[in-house]
Amino acid sequence: MANTWIITCLLQNLEYRVDLHTRKCNVTQPKEPFRPIGVPPGATYLFEGVIGAAGMPGQAVTVATFGAQFEGNDFEVTVTYPDCFPVNHAFKGKDGHESDTM
C-alpha cells in the first residue's frame, strides 16, 4: 500500500487507486463514508492537551479531542481550543480499516 496513491472524488463517489510500480489504476467506490472535518454533532469530549511549549507565550496551542460514532464507525477528532480548527482526525471502520489524517 506504500506504493499506491489513493485519490477520492467525493462528488462522483469514486476512488482511484494507482499502483506506482505497475502504473495500473483501479476505480472503485470509496471504502469509507464521507466524514466532514470538525466535531460532529453529539460527539463526546474525551480529553484536552497542549501542543508545543506550554507556558511560553505564542509557542503552544491548546487542543481538545472528541469521540463519536459516525455511520456505525468509531471517529475521533482533535481541534484547537477555543477556535475549533481541525488538527487531526482518526477513523476506524467496521472492517477494522483505520485512517488517521493530520
Poorly predicted runs:
none
Radius of gyration based on Cα positions: 17 Å
**Mean pLDDT over the residues:** 84
Spatial sequence of strands, sheet with the most strands: 4-5-6-7-8
Question: Helix share of residues?
Answer: under 10%
Query: How far do the termini sit from each other?
Result: 19 Å
* Main sheet record: 5 strands, antiparallel
Structure class = mainly beta
Tell me the series of helices and strands, N- to C-terminal.
EEEEEEEE
Our estimate of the beta-strand percent is: over 45%
Number of strands: 8
Overall form: globular
Helices, by number, come to 0
As for the number of domains, it is: 2
GO molecular function: calcium ion binding
InterPro entries: Ependymin
Pfam families: Ependymin
Organism: Plakobranchus ocellatus
Summarize the structure.
The protein is an all-beta fold. The chain has strands spanning 4-9, 14-19, 25-28, 44-52, 60-70, 73-80, 86-92, 98-101.
Keywords:
102 residues; mainly beta; 2 domains; five-stranded antiparallel beta sheet; three-stranded antiparallel beta sheet; 8 strands
3D architecture notes:
There is one protein chain. Helices cover 0% and strands 54% of the residues. It has 102 residues and is an all-beta fold. It folds into two domains: 1-30, no CATH class; 35-101, no CATH class. The strands form two sheets. A five-stranded antiparallel sheet has the order 4-5-6-7-8, with no helix packed on it. Strands 1-2-3 form a three-stranded antiparallel sheet, with no helix packed on it. It is globular, with a radius of gyration of 17 Å. The mean pLDDT is 84.
